[in-house]
Amino acid sequence: MYAAELVGVTKRFGPVLANDGIDLAVARGEVHAVVGENGAGKSTLMSILYGLHRPDAGEVRRDGNRIVLRSPTDAIRHGLGMVHQRFRLFPGLTVAENIVIGAEPVRNGRLDRAAANEAVAALSERYGLRADPSALVGGLPVGVRQRVEILRALYRDAEVLILDEPTAVLTPGETDRLFEVLRTVAATGVSILLVTHKLSEVLAVGDRVTVLRQGRVTGRFTASETDADELVNAMIGRSLTPPVPRRARPPVGDPLLEVRDLTVRDADGVARLSEVSFAVRPGEIVGLAGVAGSGQRELVDSVTGLRGAVPGVFLAGTPVLAGRDPRVAYVPEDRHGRATAPEMSVAENVLMGAQRDLASRWTLPRARVRARARDLVDRFSISAASVDTPIGALSGGNAQKAVLARELTRPSTVVVAEEPTQGVDVGVRERVHALLRTARDEGAAILLQSSELSELRDLADRILVLYEGRVIAEFPGDATETELGRAMTGATG
Amino acid sequence: MNIFEWSFLAGVLTATAPVLLAALGGLLCQVAGVFNIALEGQLLWGAFVAVVVSDLTGSAWTGVVGAVAATVLFSALLSGPSVALRADPIVVAVGLNLLALGLTAFLMRQIFGSGGTYSSPDLAGLPDLGELGVDVPVLRDQSPLVPVALLLVVVMAAWLTRTRSGLRLRAVGQHLDAAQAVGLRVSGYRHGVTLVAGALCGLAGAQLSLGNVTLFSEGMSAGRGWIAVVAVMLSGVRPYRLLLACLLFGVAEAFGFRLQGAGLPQQAADAAPYVITLAALVLAAVARRRRRSYEHA
């Protein structure tokens, strides 16, 4: 008997068949990975299991019994818990309050804080999930917030725990810790459904794997008996093209981007970057590694001109311009904040920055704007219902391709990319990498910041490691993850 | 003029009470994430109904009960459309404020036969605490609703931090989706706070028309509901800070009365509370910006 089963689940949204007769069964105490590209139907399926959507056909079973889920409340009552990709936490409440809310201990009509703190401490202890019960959630690092979400589900006696892309927001270290926790939790008999598109994670932590493509199950595997190639095949229906070999020829020419003794202080006078120096030459990709908060944000903002005309940053030999230096193409990490205006259309979003080229004397002809957008949509194979669709309605991968379409068609010679493949599936990732390689081959100088070491190793000619605002090490592009990981924690030599 | 005279402090409390009661309602809404700017209209409506019911029945307490009940109903006009039908709460609230202004003026003519100001010997005002045997200098000349308002500050603070429903209210206000995801009946809480705010505005109105004075005149809320909104914004949704913000307004109004006594033009004295409110808003905005620039660095 399975802890949770989805049997013949079908769900249609208008013309889109999101789930098409999906069967999925999770055994007790198992870590079951659900993988697939964006839009393969993973999220819909999990939403059905958590009572957020109702299936058009098929049913949900718990311990072999059919259950009907009308809301998350029903799901919680049936022992289902979910850790959402965008955390559902209350920043102004404490850790303990966030965990017990909805099932608070009460004594004499009053909230029993002592009991709440005790219960949370006991859970923390039991599952090895450390979190201070009285800390305010708003001030906690992302990894700890995620622990709070997991603890909340466990507090509500979840026997089936669904995690939606849990590692998208975590650093490599935090990811490892999460996996340890998941193993501990599973060992107590809780079933875990891990939704992801990172195959290395599936193989590292999963017991079994179900692969979805276009709303159907295209493969079921036992993690220990499969490999990444087999999974990719099931996910995208073909094999990935083998990675392009690194070019042997070293980049030549004067640096297009040069940073000299850059020191950046925050308003309190604390140095966020200290004496950072490096150069990126035409046709070169320089990777930037480091634990989150090591100065990446400050460096990127300095190089793009967003921090103003910072002394020490030179583009093709002249100082960076304040605002947003037009010589820099910038692919920001924050896709629906910095990179796009989510409520504006695809056409308007890809236009931004190029509007002067299309404007006639007084007006911005819509026909020209849309034609240009259609051209970019074709060239970058962005799938959008139309160029008038709000960009926020696109999948993460398509929105990211639109951002790249805008940035890489600018007449810029320097490209700054931050986490360019965060939250996108393998197919898009491959495409993004190809685009960056093409830009490099055409002579762009690229600064690539990524928390995924495999990405840096695939793309970068050199990798700089930031630690506490300093470049503490530089590696060739084929450095091992172990070497890089050690340097990221400040271990030199 | 000695501003530490008992009579001055008593004046401060009198001026503070209606604003504080309305602001407590606004604070409650704010906690649950409902931006309630209909306090002004509800306050005026409460003041009107209190006078009508008191005049008809000859009992001030019946007037208070009537005002509370009628204002709860009135506030349902806000909670219904904005919570259940997802109308823009700002638009609905503006509508309510205008409705209260027009409806009270109209009904006043229908019921009392003339507009402007209504006052009559039949109209029973709330008793002074002195008459009820309270012999504390500051409170002697206050209506019983004044200590009630002060007590409600304490009750509200305890409710929000120490009870289950208080915790849930704060949660609803902070993250709607998350509150839904943990199984809270979100719209129930939002309806609830809007109606409770209506009750508090009813009390505020009754205090204004049967406590501070014993009469009704058109538009007598005179911006107090708006000042309550400002007080909520200044309070950072903390009840004790809300009390301070309302007291600031009370001091300004009482001080205005004194200035008038000292020969300053009435218009200048009347403007005092609003000038102070504006100054407080500017100072708060400056302080907030300064704080933010640290956080964002």
UniProtKB/TrEMBL annotation, chain A:
It comes from the Bacteria. PANTHER family: CARBOHYDRATE TRANSPORT ATP-BINDING PROTEIN MG119-RELATED, GALACTOFURANOSE TRANSPORTER ATP-BINDING PROTEIN YTFR. Residues 4-239, 257-493 form the ABC transporter domain. InterPro entries: AAA+_ATPase, ABC_carbohydrate_import_ATPase, ABC_transporter-like_ATP-bd, ABC_transporter-like_CS, P-loop_NTPase. Gene3D superfamilies: P-loop containing nucleotide triphosphate hydrolases. The keyword Chaperone does not apply. PROSITE patterns: ABC_TRANSPORTER_1, ABC_TRANSPORTER_2. It comes from Herbidospora galbida. Keywords: ATP-binding, Nucleotide-binding, Repeat, Transport. The keyword Protein biosynthesis does not apply. This is ABC transporter ATP-binding protein. GO terms for molecular function: ATP binding; ATP hydrolysis activity.
